[in-house]
Design brief:
By secondary structure, the protein is α/β, with parallel strands linked by helices. Helices cover 24% and strands 21% of the residues. The longest helix has 10 residues, at 57-66. The strands form 2 sheets. A 7-stranded parallel β-sheet has the order 1-2-3-4-5-6-7. A two-stranded antiparallel sheet has the order 8-9.
Length: 185
């Protein structure tokens, strides 16, 4: 989420959480100050997730102090030890290339895993799906499915994976960082 109208539309259309991406290289990047301003004008019923990519602990701590984040999503190359340094629930994003990509789940003790599509060039936001059939087993830790989800494929994705939650981003945008309210609905 990069602006208040998008945050409000997401809430109206049933989003249980919104994400603020603090990764400067993302076309959806937002400052702590702007995320705080949006958050202050949003209902408490919607959880706020801070999305970080290889940030220093101090920066993440500053975001936690300023914004009422309910969770932290670590979307970079953060170690299991780094993930254990926070009091908030951690979602560890894993970029899935193949079944072997899932083995990293054994290394982390986190509240959930966000499974996104692997890319050599970026840490997320590819707009591409991965082979959901590799997720044909039960997981001990909750799974959030991400990667190329849109109004055309989201029901198939839920049916195929039965995730705890889904994460939509580029699939419900009119342009990077601007949500399409009809797609959100």
């Amino acid at each position: 989420i990069t602006n208040l109208p998008d945050a409000q539309a997401a809430a109206v259309h049933g989003a249980s959480a919104i994400g603020f991406i603090f990764y400067e290289k993302s076309p959806r990047a937002i400052s702590i100050e702007k995320a705080k301003s949006i958050s202050e004008q949003l209902s408490e019923s919607v959880s706020r997730v801070g999305v970080f990519v290889n940030h220093e602990k101090e920066f993440i701590d500053e975001a936690i102090a300023e914004i009422p984040l309910g969770m932290i999503q670590l979307h970079g190359d953060e170690s299991p030890n780094f993930c254990n340094k926070f009091d908030l629930p951690i979602l560890k994003a894993l970029r899935i290339k193949n079944k072997e990509s899932l083995s990293a789940m054994n290394d982390y003790n986190v509240a959930g895993f966000l499974l996104d599509t692997f890319s050599n060039n970026q840490y997320g936001g590819t707009g591409e799906t991965f082979d959901w059939s590799i997720l044909n087993r039960k997981f001990k830790t909750p799974i959030i499915l991400s990667g190329g989800l849109n109004p055309e494929n989201i029901l198939d994705a839920i049916d195929a994976v039965n995730p705890s939650a889904v994460d939509v981003n580029s699939g419900v945008e009119s342009s990077p960082g601007k949500k399409d309210f009809n797609k959100l609905k």
